[in-house]
Write a structure and sequence with these properties.
Elements (H helix, E strand, L loop, with lengths): L1 E4 L2 H10 L6 E7 L8 E6 L3 E12 L15 H11 L7 E12 L6
Parallel strand pairs: 1-3
Antiparallel strand pairs: 2-5, 3-4, 4-5
């Protein structure tokens, strides 16, 4: 299973913070169901690939608790952008991951 990050704010958050705090906690809004403890690949488009572990999932209404780890300035901006990217799908959820390894790679160009 993999997770791709394409939004400039999220990419900037990951790139600017990974080497400051490893593992790096990242919160994202997804329509696909993720299981706690699952290891996944992450693709940070244009920069690199990495390995991560799903720490927890939560309901979208609790997104305000995780916006600090999203890369966005506020919860409304985060939810609006996620809804746009996922074409307003139902059942969006917050997925919190820890990126445990990240490598710059030419293969990460999306």
């Amino acid at each position: 299973m993999y997770m791709k990050f394409t939004h400039p704010k999220v990419i900037e958050y990951i790139i600017n913070n990974y080497y400051k705090a490893t593992p790096l906690r990242v919160a994202t809004i997804r329509s696909h169901y993720y299981t706690k403890g699952k290891r996944i690949k992450v693709y940070v488009c244009g920069y690199g690939i990495g390995d991560a572990i799903v720490v927890k999932t939560d309901k979208l209404r609790n997104a305000v608790l995780y916006v600090l780890y999203s890369g966005f300035d506020n919860v409304d901006e985060w939810i609006n952008e996620a809804s746009r990217l996922h074409k307003y799908k139902r059942n969006l959820q917050v997925v919190v991951i820890d990126i445990i390894d990240f490598r710059v790679s030419r293969r990460a160009i999306c």
